[in-house]
Write a structure and sequence with these properties.
The complex is a heterotrimer of chains A (596), B (693) and C (312). Chain A is mainly alpha-helical. Chain A has 3 domains: 258 residues, no CATH class; 43 residues, no CATH class; 275 residues, no CATH class. A two-stranded antiparallel sheet of chain A has the order 1-2. Chain B is α+β, with helices and mostly antiparallel strands and 693 residues long. In chain B, the strands form 6 sheets. Chain B has an 8-stranded mixed sheet with strand order 18-20-16-15-28-26-23-24. In chain B, strands 9-8-10-11-14-13-12 form a 7-stranded mixed sheet, with helices on both faces. A 4-stranded antiparallel sheet of chain B has the order 4-3-6-7, with no helix packed on it. In chain B, strand 3 and strand 4 form a beta hairpin. The longest helix of chain B is centred in the middle third of the chain and has 27 residues. In chain B, 45% of the residues are buried. In chain C, 35% of the residues lie in helices and 28% in strands. Chain C is globular. The two termini of chain C are 38 Å apart. Classes of the chains: A mainly alpha (596), B alpha+beta (693), C alpha/beta (312). The interface between A and C is large, with 42 and 46 residues.
């Protein structure tokens, strides 16, 4: 009971709620809201009022009660309005204190981030209340015109409220990782797309994280516009929307509580300021090192977080990340298995020839493995001010972030590699052979003229191992760049460009040698051009899938590819050592004396 | 190339992977196939939608139930129709059947948006009986076929003479020499005859056998048949069944004239239809002479009636209707609210928070009061009404059919009432049955029956010659009603038409050569304006020219097939013979009529804005092969039978227009003209045969 | 419960190649007031930020009432009241809403909050102006409001960073009175300022920083003793026309080591403990004495003598 009371206290007793409550009654807020909101509603109502004989409107007004239709327009308008304004209103949650230069006073109050931020979510209720209050005259008109289905209307109103709460929590979560303006724009874009797709009359509506499927249900079932199989019922769609939004709210709330993993920047910043030697106060104010200042502020702020999860922070963060990857991987492999056993294999068994099935199946297996590794590289790497931070894992045992990253990536790499090799073999035994077909054919018709020999077993196993090796090379590259750049996403972008260059350059050089007569006239160059191109992973896989055509001569060795990947790893290890030593000295030096 | 094709198939494979997951269960979500049949010991219910499996859901559908309770319990429950696919549900009515008794139940429903129909009789907590009543049997009514409904309880079905050379004729009668439409016989029991003429307008003729018992139908059913006859239906009765003729004579709202002999039948003309008495035996072991006689007569009947003519009437609301005023009122009130709450609040942002809060509260409260008052005004506002009618004069009086559109100006459950002799008023529902059931009344596919409606009983049963119904309409929504009225005291025009064939060879297809002399004497209590003579004739199919298709041309015994369009032309504009005042006689001569072809032409006239009546497209009687017709058409300034009962209606008339039509009966057409048309048609046929070889 | 409120142990902080704070150690006893003075860039603000958990030292530690600022920053922050040099404030709030905002921030129970706001307003002379918008306040009232906000959660240790900057003499005087009241209430105060007379007036211990190093630290008497000159310095003011004669009379006296004329004043340094003999000599020569003061060594002099004027 105490926990429930404390959780309720979170909402009631939050300073941001008190401040927003004080600010909600202002000429600017009320005037802007009324102007935009009534504008949106008038824009939606005017076509109905000015040209009621239009065919499309007649289809609506003839089949739906006008009161019900007007009620849906009001809720739809309020939802569209909230979708635009809530992210922008919440963009000031950290920016206002930073610009007003009182963020340090907030941190010094010792207030926990969840209590500070939750007030912003609660105050959106004030904003929604203001929206509904300003729509009151419209609701009075709806009531007087009659024809409103109360249960549906109240259900939709609840979903609109839940949608506002979800938008607020998602925005606050994104603001912990992105610049507030970027976070607002990104959330606005995603929410607008989901709302638009949520309006589509799909038999199975997957986009149930907005209220629009429920709002539009009344319209579609009234005008009978859809495939009779839409059927379903309002309660079912209502529960789907409520559950979808509740899931997003829960994940956002947990992520806000846990907070981002930012280490306090040591080398040249204090709270909210990045100081360079010889900086004057004026120049300090106009310095654009937001990418350092923002994480630094949040790091100090999250020192005020409660201790309940602090003892298991390492286990929680890496456990959740690993769990997410495993769940996503399981979903992808299940979909592939389901598709093969329920669609493709029966299709083949029915006598239809699908020469490409085996090829595409193995391509997709490597695709799933590759995407999973890229996600793992991003999740298990941290910026320079965090990578050497020591976090409690369990029972008071502490471990460095970098070591947890390496351990988690290594573990996931093993699991994914094993699954990518194992599942095709398991499907072969459990479904393909009983169906009288094989996913490892020895010969394959490429086209009527050309029959090709392709060893699918080697393609599956060696392709997977090669992909894992590339994954390790990319990971080391990412970890090295993280030690020198401030932002993990910047490191990921630079790493991607570097590795892309490593893939493209050998291909281009090999092609140039083969294409330019002067070069290809030299027998030595001509003989070694394919070998040079083979250093590129792309060429390696083209060779493995026998897509290179005449370019790959007989007896070509794949050793150059392995050589290059191993040398990338070695180079990274060599570069990481001095960088790591300097950062450890800076971040672990004084602490080591303390912790002894 | 291999790489490109491989990438394309890879993308396809991935797309299937992603979408396959989301839709894999969609197919398995279709409705279960198992049958819904439920029965109850001792309870036998015969139920039907339409007749003989023929259901026209673009017309009012007649649902009939014959409930026999052979158990010793009282059966009490509600008859319900449900569409499991889209959740629609209609309660037909409460049923109470005592032990060992039989009960008939009849209902008329609009089924234009229904995919499947399951009828059930449900008690308080149990279902006694459930059956599926198929709506989509593949047997649809067609405008190219005439339907002969044989009403008989003996279980026999009418056999018509069939042409052996045509395969799969499904018992249809094909008229000799293509003169007339094919005739499809249908069977119905007496308990399947509806209580309103609407559903009957899909058939052209009803036939009773010589053993038919008049008492098998109740008075409401006889009245429905009689009204259907006045609207253009034909009833074949054995000349010995005088009791049936008397029941019809008593039930008809118009006067039934004395019989005249026509094509071996005694024809009692009444309004636009007639009773035709036959002498032979319907079920003779030796020959099918009587069935052939009736089938031939039926094939010559037009499938057009007053309902199909009025379907083409185009209506407009005119200016400054109540709906326009109330809509502008809503826009004005909320534009003011927008100004006060948005712009003004922004302008006073320097004020204190308390003052801003007070101002906002005041503005919102004021707007709420204004909205409530506005809502009250809208709820009590009068709606708009526009209507058009066609009055057909014929033997025994006049029949008026009105198409009345009502539009709410903000109100909801509103009342609609008409006055007039034998007045009837029904509310139409979804007009066109397709995936987009929109209510675009202006343009109607050619359809010869009443639009679908759900029968509404009269809310003013005690007031004679008045009919009031409730019109549930959403604010600014539109609904359509059909009203009918009959007046037996109005004598039709006396018309005489003479024709002198041309002396020389006639000049070509665009001209109707020769001289017509038309003399009209009006006994009508009202004046006619802009009158004109409208003539219907038939052409043979042309194989040459792109205009016509070979459809229906049968080079075997059937010389002439159904031509592709209705060749109804009207006399040229200058041939109009202006107004016919009440109790006056007008004589007009027409020489070498210049004719205008209208494909699928139909009656059309517009509102008072004065679109020239010369633009009439005439489908008064779709000209059947080898048939010719002639009509007098004019405009009426007033509505002769029906009137909008403004006192008991929530709508105000905005716009009305009335048309008068009277057919010159076949027997009154000049023989010279008939022979001339016969020779012309034969020449066309010979030319068509030569061209087809 | 330790007897020292604030203990700074060998704290170092560098920015790139700049050593902002270089191995500083000192302590502030409970209820004591330490004045921290030093030129711009001496590291005062960096040190105060480290003490108030807004920066991490590269080495060394700070204990606030026995709690380490690095290991348990959240607990330290609840015991600490930090008044920053710049006044930052949420938009569009009145004084009461501003104080309520931070009272809620410090999780003060709602029932106590109104009374607590009334107390701090009274202490900082803001009573009766709770409804005034913060953005309309004068600099003096803003500093008071900032001080009120700093006291709202009744911290035991106060860190005041240049509280009197930008104030007129009267406002400074009132602020000094408030700080004296706080000291008397048992608060431990660390105050940094450029206005040396204010520091001298309210601090019982002084710390002088230069180029990141603590050059001098201790109570005021000790500092005076440590930095007092060999001779006593006396200031005399006589009518302008008697200035030269008076200088000559005084220079000829046996215990007078030097007699300088500066700004229409005579600065005499003498070995004699009692300076009355100077007055007697002037009276004998019928020279009117307008002003006579015997300056002990003031903080400014201590500061000027102990710092080399290094600026980073």
């Amino acid at each position: 009971m105490k926990a429930v009371r404390r959780f309720a206290e979170l909402f009631r007793n939050s300073p941001t709620f008190g401040r927003d409550r004080a600010n909600i009654i202002s000429g600017i807020t009320i005037g802007t809201t009324a102007l935009l909101l009534n504008g949106v509603i008038m824009m939606m109502i005017l076509p109905l009022m000015l040209d009621p004989d239009d065919i499309d409107f007649r289809m609506l007004t003839e089949n739906m009660e006008f009161g019900q239709l007007l009620g849906l327009i009001l809720l739809g308008g309020a939802t569209a309005f909230a979708t635009v304004l809530i992210p922008l209103r919440l963009a000031s949650v950290f920016m206002a204190p930073r610009i007003g230069r009182y963020f340090d006073q907030i941190v010094l109050s010792g207030i926990s981030p969840i209590r500070f931020l939750i007030g912003k979510v609660t105050s959106q209720n004030l904003f929604l209340a203001l929206i509904l209050f300003l729509l009151l005259p419209w609701f009075v008109l709806v009531l007087s015109l009659g024809g409103l289905e109360w249960p549906v209307f109240l259900g939709n109103l609840f979903l609109v409220w839940q949608y506002c709460m979800m938008l607020s929590l998602a925005m606050l979560w994104l603001s912990l990782y992105l610049n507030e303006v970027l976070a607002g724009l990104a959330l606005l874009y995603v929410a607008a797309v989901l709302c638009a797709v949520g309006c589509a009359p799909l038999p199975w509506q997957p986009f149930v994280v907005t209220p629009f499927p429920a709002l539009m249900y009344s319209v579609y079932s009234a005008v009978n516009l859809t495939d009779p199989e839409l059927g379903g019922s309002y309660p079912g769609i209502f529960l789907a929307c409520a559950a979808g939004m509740a899931t997003v709210m829960a994940v956002s709330l947990g992520a806000i509580y846990l907070g981002p993993l930012y280490g306090i920047t040591r080398d040249n910043s204090t709270f909210g300021e990045v100081v360079k030697a010889g900086d004057s106060k004026r120049r300090r104010r106009f310095r654009f090192r937001l990418h350092i200042q923002r994480p630094s502020e949040l790091a100090f702020f999250y020192e005020n977080r409660g201790d309940s999860f602090r003892k298991y922070e390492g286990l929680l963060r890496w456990g959740i990340a690993l769990g997410f990857l495993l769940i996503a991987g399981t979903a992808a492999w299940s979909a592939l298995y389901f598709l093969m056993t329920r669609h493709y294999l029966p299709f083949i068994r029915a006598g239809n020839r699908l020469p490409w099935v085996a090829y595409e199946f193995h391509t997709l297996c490597h695709g799933v493995h590759g995407v999973a590794l890229i996600l793992a590289v991003f999740l298990f790497s941290h910026a320079r001010n965090t990578t050497y931070q020591r976090l409690p894992v369990i029972f008071g045992w502490k471990m460095q972030v970098s070591r947890m990253d390496s351990a988690a990536f290594g573990l996931f790499l093993l699991i994914s590699t094993a699954v990518t090799i194992g599942i095709p073999l398991w499907i072969e035994q459990s479904a393909a052979i009983p169906a009288g077909v094989t996913l490892f054919p020895t010969t394959e018709m490429q086209s009527e003229q050309h029959v090709r020999q392709l060893d699918y077993l080697r393609l599956s196993v060696e392709g997977t191992l090669a992909l894992s090796l590339c994954g390790v090379a990319v990971y080391f590259l990412q970890r090295t760049l993280c030690l020198s750049l401030w932002m993990k996403s910047m490191a990921m972008a630079v790493g991607a460009l570097l590795y892309l260059a490593a893939c493209i350059t050998p291909m281009v050089l090999g092609a140039i040698i083969m294409e330019i007569p002067q070069l290809s006239a030299n027998p030595l160059l001509k003989y070694n051009a394919p070998q040079l191109a083979m250093t590129s992973p792309v060429m390696f896989f083209l060779f493995l899938y026998q897509e290179g055509g005449p370019f790959f001569r007989e007896g070509l060795s794949t050793a150059p590819f392995y050589l290059v990947q191993v040398s990338i790893i070695a180079a990274c290890v060599i570069v990481m050592r001095p960088l790591g030593r300097r950062l450890r000295r800076e971040y672990l030096g004084p602490l080591r004396t303390e912790n002894k | 190339m291999a790489v490109i094709s491989r990438v394309r198939s890879l993308v396809l494979f991935t797309v299937i992977l992603t979408t396959g997951l989301t839709n894999v269960d969609a197919q398995t979500a279709s409705v279960g196939d198992e049958g819904p049949n439920v029965d109850f010991a001792g309870l036998d219910i015969q139920a039907s939608a339409g007749w003989d499996g023929y259901v026209d859901d673009s017309a009012p559908v007649s649902f009939s139930f014959l409930i026999s309770n052979n158990s010793d319990q009282v059966i009490e429950g509600t008859l319900i129709l449900e569409d499991p696919l889209n959740g629609r549900k209609i309660e037909l009515g409460e049923i109470f059947v005592g032990p060992n008794s039989v009960r008939q139940f009849q209902s008329i429903q609009a089924m234009s948006n229904w995919y499947q129909c399951v009828a059930s009789l449900s008690g308080r907590n149990k279902t006694y009986w459930r059956r599926e009543l198929p709506l989509h049997t593949g047997k649809d009514f067609s405008a190219e076929i005439n339907y002969l409904l044989f009403v008989d309880d003996s279980g026999r079905s009418l056999q018509l003479p069939v042409d052996e050379t045509v395969s799969n004729s499904s018992g249809r009668f094909l008229p000799q020499l293509g003169k007339g439409n094919p005739v499809q016989p249908l069977s119905a029991k007496t308990w399947q005859i509806p209580r309103h003429p609407g559903p009957l307008t899909v058939v052209q003729a009803i036939v009773f056998s010589e053993q038919a018992d008049a008492d098998r139908l109740n008075d409401v059913q006889w009245e429905a048949i009689a009204k259907w006859m006045c609207l253009g239906g034909t009833v074949f009765v054995c000349e010995k069944s005088t009791e049936i003729i008397d029941r019809l004579k008593k039930a008809t709202p118009l006067e039934m004239l004395a019989p005249t002999s026509f094509e071996q039948l005694a024809v009692y003309r009444c309004g636009a239809g007639s009773v035709r008495a036959y002498s032979g035996q319907l079920f003779s072991a030796s020959d099918l002479e009587t069935p052939r006689l009736l089938a031939t007569a039926t094939s010559r009947l037009t499938s057009t009636n007053l309902a199909s003519m009025i379907n083409w009437a185009h209506l407009s609301w005119g200016e400054n209707s109540n709906s326009d005023v109330t809509r502008m009122l809503v826009v004005t009130v909320f534009a003011g609210y927008w100004l006060m709450s948005g712009i003004i609040t922004l302008m006073i942002f320097r004020q204190s928070r308390r003052r801003i809060a007070i101002y906002t509260l005041t503005v919102v409260a004021g707007a709420c009061v204004a909205a409530a008052v506005l809502g009250g005004v809208l709820r009590s506002s009068y709606g708009d009404l526009r209507w058009a009618s066609i009055t057909q004069a014929g033997p025994g009086g006049i029949v008026q059919l009105g198409k009345i559109d009502v539009r709410s100006a903000g109100g909801r459950n509103t009342l609609m009432a008409v006055r007039g002799k034998h007045a009837d008023l029904q509310l139409m529902e979804g007009m066109i049955r397709d995936p987009y059931p929109f209510y675009y009344f202006g343009n109607q596919t050619s359809h010869d029956a009443f639009p679908p409606f759900r029968w509404h009983e009269n809310l003013q049963p005690d007031t004679s010659d008045a009919y009031q119904i409730r019109v549930p309409v959403t604010p600014w929504g539109q609904r359509r009603t059909y009203a009918t009225g009959y007046d037996s005291e109005v004598r039709p025009l006396d018309v005489s038409l003479k024709y002198e064939p041309p002396s020389a060879q006639w000049a070509g297809s665009g001209i109707l050569p020769g001289k017509f002399t038309l003399t009209v004497t009006s006994h009508l209590p009202f004046d006619l304006a802009e009158c004109t003579l409208v003539i219907g004739r038939t052409d043979a199919l042309h194989t040459a020219g792109k205009q016509f298709t070979r459809q229906g041309f049968q080079p075997s015994t059937q010389v002439v097939g159904r031509q592709s369009g209705v060749q109804f032309q009207r006399a040229d504009a200058n041939e109009r013979f202006s107004n016919i005042r009440s109790s006056h006689t007008v004589t007009q001569e027409f020489t070498d009529l210049r004719l205008r072809y209208r494909d699928n032409s139909t009656w059309g006239f517009s509102s008072a804005s004065g679109v020239d009546i010369a633009d009439i497209r005439n489908n008064a009687r779709s000209a059947l092969p080898r048939a010719i017709d002639a009509w007098i058409v004019g405009k009426l300034a007033i509505s002769p039978v029906l009137a909008i009962d403004e006192e008991h209606s929530d709508f105000q008339p905005m716009n009305e227009s009335h048309l008068f039509v009277q057919e010159i009966p076949a027997e009154a057409l000049p023989l010279e003209w008939l022979q001339f048309e016969e020779e012309r048609l034969q020449q066309q046929i010979d030319a068509a045969l030569k061209a087809s070889r | 419960m330790s007897i020292t409120a604030v203990e700074i142990d060998n704290v170092t902080k560098t920015f790139d190649d700049l050593i902002a704070v270089d191995q500083i150690s000192f302590h502030v006893p409970r209820g004591g007031t330490l004045g921290l003075i030093g030129p711009n860039g001496a590291g005062k603000t960096t040190l105060l930020r480290i003490i108030s958990t807004l920066a991490r030292p590269d080495s060394g530690d700070v204990l606030i009432e026995g709690e380490s600022v690095q290991k348990n920053p959240r607990l330290v922050r609840t015991r600490l009241g930090f008044m920053p040099a710049e006044f930052g404030c949420p938009r569009n709030l009145t004084i009461e809403e501003y104080l309520d905002y931070f009272a809620c921030m410090y999780d003060i129970p709602v029932v106590e909050r109104r009374q607590r706001i009334r107390d701090v307003c009274e202490l900082t002379d803001l009573s009766g102006r709770e409804g005034v918008y913060v953005k309309g306040l004068s600099t003096g009232n803003r500093q008071r409001l900032l001080l009120a906000k700093t006291l709202i959660h009744d911290p035991s240790v106060l860190i005041l960073d240049e509280p009197a900057s930008g104030l007129d003499p009267r406002a400074r005087n009132e602020l000094r009175a408030i700080i004296r009241t706080l000291a008397s209430l048992g608060k431990s105060i660390i105050i940094s300022s450029h206005i040396l007379p204010d520091i001298e007036d309210i601090s019982d211990r002084i710390g002088i920083l230069e180029a990141g190093r603590l050059v001098l630290e201790g109570d005021l008497a000790t500092l005076r003793a440590q930095s007092a000159p060999a001779h006593r310095a006396i200031r005399l003011r006589v009518p302008t026309e008697d200035l030269v004669r008076a200088s000559g009379v005084l220079s000829s006296l046996p215990n007078v080591t030097s007699c300088e004329t500066r700004d229409q004043q005579l600065i005499i340094s003498s070995d004699e403990a009692n300076s009355n003999y100077l007055l007697a000599a002037l009276l004998q020569h019928d020279i009117r004495v307008l002003q006579f003061s015997e300056n002990e060594t003031n903080l400014e002099e201590i500061f000027m003598r102990s710092t080399a004027g290094k600026v980073t």
